[in-house]
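Morning, I've got a small favour to ask if you have a moment. I've been staring at a protein lately and its backbone has me curious. You're getting the sequence in one-letter code plus the fold written as tokens. I've dropped the whole record in just underneath, so have a look:
=====
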Amino acid sequence: MLDIEPLPAYFSADDARAVGALQLHEKKLGNIEREVEQLFGDVDAGFAAADLVREQTFHYAEVAHGQIELNAAVASYEPEPGRLTTHSVTQVPYYLHLTLAQCLGMDSAQIRVVKPFVGGGFGHRVEPLNFEMVTAALARAAGDTVKTELSREDGFLTHRGRPETDIRLKLGMKRNGEITAVDCEITQRGGAYGGYGLVTILYAGALLHALYRVAAVKYRGHRVYTNTPPCGAMRGHGAVDARHAFESLLDAMAVELGLDPIAARRANLITPPWRTLNDLQVNSYGIPDCLDWVEQASGWKTRHGKLARGRGLGLACSHYVSGSAKPVHWSGEPHAVINLKLDFDGSVTVLTGASDIGQGSSTLLAQVVAEVLMLPMARIRVIATDSALTPKDNGSYSSRVSFMVGNAALRAAQELLRVLVAAAATRLQVGVERIEWLGERCRVAGTDQGLDFADVVNAALVDSGTLIVKGTWSTPPETQGGKFRGAAVGSTAGFSYAAQVVEVAVDETTGVVRVERVWVAHDCGFAINPLAVEGQVQGAVWMGMGQALSEETQYHEGLPLRPNMLDYRIPTIAESPPIDVKLIESHDPLGPFGAKEASEGALHGFPPALCNAIFDAIGIRLTELPATPDRVLEAIHAARRAERLRARRSATPEPVAERG
């Protein structure tokens, strides 16, 4: 009989960090996965110069992605010649390819990874997951094909969602709203394994910058191992909770100083080009226009602070990256590669390793190529995410695809256009400068002499046959951040910006908060596909609403209490308000056609805008999310008890000292 020794389990970050706690991982003292300390500017001097200094603590529940599509993989193994083909729902086919080779001890050349057109993810599948390794190993053992499907409960256990987080935030502010100093400490419950925890705790601090002009920032971050499912990347990666804390405290301080919350934000706006204290480069900045629009569209001036009790308006601003500017691979490889194939049939095939997970990246790439070549979309075909056919791409995460892969597609299309124009010039026996390109036809400028597109294709294929041209893109050095430890996270080629106003109705007898309407303006640089961008912004707002109002994973002694869609409360259409979207186009100088990120930035702003609206409605500040009815009622009752206590104290006369 085996002797089994029970070991202690730690289900909170505090317990895991307590003195005497056992190490959950070798060499991870104090169960700290990652500790971050950053100081930019003179924080003490900043607080000394402030007219108002306030400090607040916040708590945020762990949340899961709740993607519609469940995890699944199909792996086929050919014993001779020893080849593995894996189809999976992954967001990162390239990293899955590398990890399969590592785990199975196979040469990468013997592996093929295909990512089918399956949507969803939100970060849940932004790293290789265990079921993918298991499926491939079983297929090799069987010498055949194996399919694995995970249940919804399995998905909650695999997890990789947003971690339970505690934040202590201190801000200094002048009477005009100018922020003089920021002191922030964040602790995240990372779960049993690392995942993208290293990046998450860094993003939380890095994105304290680049939204507003700040004079000094001190940041301390702690990512802690616990005996719970591992957390990782989730839409708005790393910065959602920190933005709620920042925008909530900023709002409270503005009210205390008698400032309009919009005026407080305007007091801290950036003028691009701008280099932040932590060496982030801001080249385009649409927040001023975003604020103007939500102020007007929501009727802010006439309605904020003036609605009947139980109704309120709240404001928040937010931002996010358009991909990570630091290279993932130090081999010198480009950040993004696109191949274009032109053949006898006159079609242009876009070969891309970029994963379309519902954000519409394949459509965007086709649009970019069609725009440059001035061809109808019917001529453009996209083949994506098949490692045997398409060039390597790092994956769909941190809103990198539109910006990085879009730029690569733009350059590839420009190169193909150059080849086509040269072929037309040769056939027409004129210089290339005389060719006027019209898409389905070209002509010699100033004449009727020309060629149809099919004739140009025939001319281009002479001698070479099938044409394949390449476009690549890497972020410029000036956007790649500083030299300090952790500087790789937060640097980006272009930040998106957003402002939103939320209107709520609060029932003080039940604690139920109902979102009546949302106005959101999003600076996407340039909307290549406006309908898709609007949908992405609405989806980001809606996902933020879930985290703000109802979503939380909970555990009892490490066992999940809500591993299904009945108990884990994602908002339904019944709770979804009208979401009015305004696309602000700042035309970023580095983005393809000026485009930037459009899918994540608006998420950060909803939770604080909601809580600021609750304050406007009933005068109560919530410092814990989600704002479930029980938490709202508890806050209401606590405020009433405090008010009664103050009233009793003011009604009790001060004792009169007797004279000796």
Summary: The longest helix spans residues 401-428. The longest strand covers residues 179-191. The chain has 16 helices and 25 strands. The mean pLDDT is 95.
